[in-house]
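Students often ask what a holo structure prediction actually looks like on paper. The answer is less mysterious than it sounds. You provide the chain, you provide the ligand, and the output is a string of discrete structure tokens encoding the 3D arrangement of the protein together with GCB.
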Amino acid sequence: MALSLFSAILGLYILHVSLALIILNKDVSTSRGMLYPRDSETREVRSLDGMWNFVPSDETNPTQGIRDQWYKDDLNKVREVIGMPVPASYNDITTEQSLRDHVGTVWYDRKFFVPRSWAKDQRVWLRFGSVHYEAFVWVNGELAVKHEMGHLPFEAEVTHLLKYGSENRITVMCDNALIQTTVPQGKISEVANDNGVSIVQSYSFDFFNYAGIHRSVHLYTTPKTFIEEVEINTDLANDNSLGYVYYTISVNGSAANEADNALYARVQLYNREGEQVANATSDAKLSGMLQVEKVKPWWPYLMHPDPGYLYELEIELHAANEELLDVYRLNVGIRTLSWTNTTFNINGKPVYFRGFGRHEDADVRGKGLDYALLTRDFNLLRWIGANAYRTSHYPYSEESMQFADRHGIMIIDECPSVDTENYNQALLGKHKSSLEQLIHRDRNHPSVVMWSIANEPRTQQMNADTYFQFVATFTRSLDSTRPITAAIAVPSSEDKAARYLDIVSFNRYNAWYSNPGRLDMITKRVIDEATAWHKKCNKPVIMSEYGADTLEGLHLQPSYVWSEEYQTDLFSRHFKAFDALRRQKWFIGEFVWNFADFKTAQTYTRVAGNKKGVFTRARQPKAVAHLLRKRYFALGREMDQCSFPDDLFTYIAEPSESGKHDSTDL
Ligand code: GCB
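The corresponding structure tokens follow.
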């Protein structure tokens, strides 16, 4: 009897545990609208960037502001406020450790006017480029919108919340807490300190959990009936001389007069000179196709003399009586992507990626959008001859995606899932939602050539198989025109997820985390690991991270860990492996970790952050940058016949008799 009771309890326990481990593939809500705010003859955009009032909540009382309704009045009536720039992370703006490391909620508010003319016959929208991690927004004391997920935009119609003749107030509560069901994951605990306890946020990912209003805040108007979504797909034919632009438009609202509800769109495409090269009138479903003769395809940097060619698509929405309702313009690059189990092709031509993992990170502003920094970064990418980067480890600003389109830099677009583990139902829902929001935001960018569904997920763990099958299938269902990858760090023999990818990317730190100092233990290991991945999955393979922390100005000969010489030697041993792998054809790219030094959480392995940058945090080259530049241009010349910049080589001596075979002539 006792035994059977015991087995019954055991049975129930096993059932309970296995139920907890079952993950179901549930639907997630989909985002709407969110076109990048642009002025037009029917729309007006206003920026709310600038100085806002700011106050952190007490860490031990993060919901006090909600309970006490701080949003009902000016923040300076409830607490003493300080000035805080928007956009910026708040962490490094003051001199206070308590704000740098603050865990939980902080509050922002500011006042603004909207012109009286906005009251008439139109709608007003409030849009945030990103707030990390969770945001609650009130306008004049009323809740306007809530959003969870850093690095992605959100918006709400606020027409009914605004005062058109007097001053308005906007209040934002931002929560940076990361737990096991947020993307990315983290843990919050209470740890004893000298005076009691502290709330401590921990996370395993290797970048500082900057928070705040990271990107621009816009108010913009649309007509009552307006273009809410645009989806573009492109194709090429006749040896890339004929281009096709397929468009689908969604409308929000209906025409004033029922009879006029059969809306249609007139769509025109302009080249860089502003000449119209194609036009079309949509069908009643508001979709259609434009055909472009003598098309200029979108090519990556150094793959063509005129990379990043963009057309402008002008969309006019009309009522059946021809009344013009709305106008929206966006840039379009015409290109094709295709892939096999050994290649990745753009416009039918195989691509070899030479790029970087990066971060949105800078002194003082943290992850805040900064056009000066963005421009400098793209100048450096061009200087060094890179043709790609991965948005490790979260979506980057929409403005940076526009830069990438224009400069012909290919983007592996990553969602914010880093070090994913302890797979659970709530996490899956948010992970899928992050991809849905990302794809919705970025699907029209020609620069986006691949989706990365995770960085270093713990894919050896139980449930990783089902979990990633769901995530990959979901991603593909949203966009089948781009391949899917993930940057994996578990050994190929233990991984359970790569089979669901189209392209396998792996991260490995030979002669750094494993066998530090052993430059003689790189080349073969890289070749062996890439080969093992290809053998296991029969897919193209990328090395998505390799590198060494390097303290600028530290020179040691013979090379020694942390010195500029060591980083240079370590890269060179990787280049040797990559060249051997390139001969195998299925090896399609090399990505350095990292573009620039960046801030991390405090730990004894980091000296003021991660120093694996090829550039310093101030965006100046370390010694290795010059080596990498020579390689990236050499690869560009070998594969795409690009020319060398005049200053690629410095004069050393007269070339030898054999002239062209001088060792510097790669
Ligand atoms: C990795 C991670 C990256 C880290 C890097 C490092 O594998 O993907 O986020 O910063 O290693 O330097 O440890």
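The CA atoms of residues 116 and 329 lie 26 Å apart.
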